[in-house]
Amino acid sequence: MQNEKIVQSSQSTASLSQSIVEQIKQESLRFQGLNVEVAKVIVGQQDIVSFIAIAILCDGHILLEGVPGVAKTTMIKSVTKALGLDFNRIQFTPDMLPSDVIGTLIYNPKTQDFETKRGPVFSNLILADEINRAPAKVQAALLEAMQEHQVTIGSNSFALDEPFLVFATQNPIEQEGTYRLPEAQVDRFMFKLNVDYPSIEDEREIITRCLDSSAINIVLGKEDIVKAKSLVDKVYIDEKVIDYILNIVFATRQPKKYNAEKIEHFIQYGVSPRATLAIFNACKARAFLQKRHFVTPDDVKDVCPSILRHRILLTYEAEAENITTDEIIKEILQLVPSP
C-alpha cells in the first residue's frame, strides 16, 4: 500500500513537472512578441530588449547609459506600449524638488484641509530621463520608491501599483550640471546596460525604414506578467550552478582566493548579496525566455556583466590605468571554473 502511494506521488510529480515545462514554453513564446513589437520602432538592440524583459520578470530596475540619440527613451516607450502598462516620463533637472516626483500636500480652502496630490511616480513604469541631473533630495525620494515600492508624502505612506519599475537613463559624456548617483541607489538597479551605437547595417535600415510607434500592438498585460513570474520561480537551478554564482560573487570580494591576484589591487569593494540574488533571479528569467525549465552556466555568464558592472567599486589605481569593471568581470569569469 505504501509503495503504491510512493508510485502515485512520483507519477503526479512527473505530471506536474511536465505541465510546468509546457507552460514555460507557451508563456515564453508570448514574450517573444515583445521583441517583435519593439523591432517595429527600434532597429537592432535586441540584447537590450531581452534584458528589459528579464528585468520585468524579476521586478528589477534598469540603468541605461549611452550617448544622446541612441534611442534609449524611445526604446522604453516602445516596451511600455507593447506591455500595456501605465507609463510616466520624468525629465530630471538640477532644480527639481522631491515633490516634483512623488507629489505633495496642497491646502484646499473649501475643506480647510490638506489634500494629497500624487506625483508622476504613481505609475507602473517610470522613465527617469537623465537621472544623474537631479540633486540628492530627489534621489532620496526616488530611492524609497525603488526599494520599498512606496512613497511618503507628509506623514502618510502610499503603496505603489504593481508592477513598479524604474528605467533610468544617463549620459556618460556630459558632466556639467550632473550629480553622481549615491552608491546605495546604484545598487538598487538590477542591470546597468550600455546602449552602444548601431552597426552600419542597422543605421542604414534606420535611414530607409519608416519607424512608426503607433504600429506597436499590446502583446502582454499585467495578468500575463504575473503568470510568467510564477513560472520563473519554478525554473530549476542546480546546486552546482548556485555554487558557481557564489564563487563569482566571492571572487569580487576575495580575488586572491580564486587566483586573481593581478586584479586584486584594482577592486576597492566587491559586490553585495543583492547582486547574488539578482544573478540567481536573472538567470532563471533568462532560462524562461529561452524556453527552458532549467538554468545553465551560460545563463549565469550572460547576465553577470550587466549585474556586476555598476556594483564593483574600482580603486584609483584602476582608474589611472583605465581598467574598467567589464574587464574585471571578464577576468573573473575566466578564472572561476564553470560546472
CATH architecture of the largest domain: 3-Layer(aba) Sandwich
Separation, N- and C-terminal Cα atoms: 41 Å
Strand fraction equals 15-25%
Q: What structural class do helix, strand and pairing data support? A: alpha/beta
Do you know the CATH topology of the largest domain?
A: Rossmann fold
CATH homology-level superfamily of the largest domain: P-loop containing nucleotide triphosphate hydrolases
Biggest beta sheet summary? 5 strands, parallel
Unreliable residue runs: 1-16
User: What is the tally of helical segments?
Assistant: 14
Let me know the average pLDDT: 81
Radius of gyration: 22 Å
Can you characterise this structure?
- It is a single chain.
- The protein is α/β, with parallel strands linked by helices and 339 residues long.
- The chain folds into 2 domains: 15-227, P-loop containing nucleotide triphosphate hydrolases (Rossmann fold, 3-Layer(aba) Sandwich); 236-335, Magnesium chelatase subunit I, C-Terminal domain (Helicase, Ruva Protein, domain 3, Orthogonal Bundle), CATH 1.10.8.80.
- Helix content is 50%, strand content 15%.
- The protein is built from 14 helices and 11 strands.
- It has helices at residues 2-38, 46-58, 72-83, 99-102, 136-148, 183-186, 200-208, 222-233, 239-253, 261-264, 273-289, 297-308, 316-320, 325-335; strands at 61-65, 87-91, 103-108, 113-118, 125-129, 150-153, 156-159, 165-170, 189-194, 267-269, 313-314.
- Strands 2-5-8-1-9 form a 5-stranded parallel beta sheet.
- A hairpin with a 4-residue loop joins β3 (103-108) and β4.
- α1 (2-38) packs across α2 (46-58) and α12 (297-308) runs antiparallel to α14 (325-335).
- It is globular.
- The two termini are 41 Å apart.
